Amino acid sequence: MSDATQHPDADAWAKACAEDLAGEKARRRGTEGPPPGTAAEELRKLVDAVADKVASLRTPLLGMGAQGAVEQFVSQAKAAVEPVIERNPQVFDHLAAAGNELLAAYRSAVEGQERRWTRGPDTPPPTGAKREDDGPDPTEHIDLD
């Protein structure tokens, strides 16, 4: 038996795997659409979408003057937002990260209380479960406003 048959090309397997992975990524991009951009790009898309939607709304309830005022307001808001996005795109990434942190903090604050609410006040905790001292009394009201 020759050396070539005993030790097949190790790179061939790696190349085949890389090709399969690239094909799978391309397939998923086709079905899922493009990945989201930065927070600044997403804000710009949102502002553009709102402006387009407002411009397309032609309702008889709003007179022509009111419709023109709304369109002017949207265009002024868009003009005010664009320079901020251009000068400080990283600010929006930080704001998005802060929003995620606030959401995680909220979930943490109410998670234990939700377990107690769903369990009910007259239902004892499961046998062997440790007592939860990390939250308020189950009858105490939590005001998250």
* N-to-C series of helices and strands: HHHHH
What is the percent of helical residues? Answer: 55-70%
Instruction: Write down the Rg.
Output: 28 Å
The profile of the biggest β sheet is: none
| Average pLDDT level | 76
Contiguous helical run count: 5
Q: In percent, how much strand structure appears in the residues? A: under 5%
Which consecutive residue ranges, at least 5 long each, have pLDDT under 50? Answer: none
Question: How many angstroms separate the termini?
Answer: 77 Å
* Strand elements, count: 0
Q: Structural class given helices, strands, pairing? A: mainly alpha
Overall morphology: flat
Word description of this protein:
This is DUF5304 domain-containing protein. Residues 21-40, 111-145 are annotated as: Disordered. It holds the Pfam family DUF5304. Residues 22-31, 129-145 have a biased composition (Basic and acidic residues). The protein is mainly alpha-helical and 145 residues long. It has a domain at 38-119. The protein contains five helices and no strands. Helix 3 (39-56) packs antiparallel against helix 4 (64-87) and helix 3 crosses helix 5. The longest helix is centred in the last third of the chain and has 31 residues, at 89-119. The radius of gyration is 28 Å and the shape is flat. The N and C termini lie far apart (77 Å). The model has no long low-confidence stretch (mean pLDDT 76).
